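Backbone-to-sequence.
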């Protein structure tokens, strides 16, 4: 049993040595590398947020189709209080319109998830480029990454906002 553990320990040590980078801490080397790691973690948090938004949008856009199915079974949804009084829960919306809105959830949610994956890959690339440049005593500014991320997130937000506004039912 100990030989198996020793094999895994040796393999991990070799892998860890190949992936790790040990530098002499002169000047601000440690501070710069730790700042690079924090920046990568910010990319990771942004990626997770975008993926979460994608999942939420996909689920939220499914609600109209559920309401539409219930409205097809009955004329409207009602909330019943303790005294037995019924109040309309939601206005009656044409089922066709609700199905159209529900169809948009998956593409919009998928776009947010794809953007989250792209941000994670961008953050990984940025981390290793910066780490490589820091070992050479240089630092590359991140103009392209920041511009790309800002443009894509803005485009997604404007797209979702326009879909929501365009799909609103005109008031009678």
């Amino acid at each position: 049993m100990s030989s198996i553990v020793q094999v895994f320990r040796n393999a991990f040590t070799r892998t860890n040595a190949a992936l790790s980078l040990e530098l002499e801490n002169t000047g601000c080397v440690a501070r710069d590398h730790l700042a690079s790691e924090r920046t990568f973690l910010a990319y990771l948090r942004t990626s997770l947020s975008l993926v979460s938004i994608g999942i939420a949008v996909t689920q939220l856009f499914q609600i109209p189709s559920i309401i539409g199915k219930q409205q097809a079974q009955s004329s409207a949804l009602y909330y019943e209080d303790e005294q037995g009084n019924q109040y309309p829960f939601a206005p009656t919306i044409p089922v066709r319109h609700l199905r159209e809105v529900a169809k948009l959830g998956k593409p919009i949610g998928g776009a947010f998830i794809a953007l989250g994956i792209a941000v994670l890959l961008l953050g990984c690339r940025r981390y290793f480029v910066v780490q490589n440049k820091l070992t050479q005593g240089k630092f590359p500014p991140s103009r392209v990454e920041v511009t790309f991320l800002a443009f894509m997130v803005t485009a997604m937000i404007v797209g979702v906002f326009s879909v929501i506004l365009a799909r609103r039912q005109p008031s009678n």
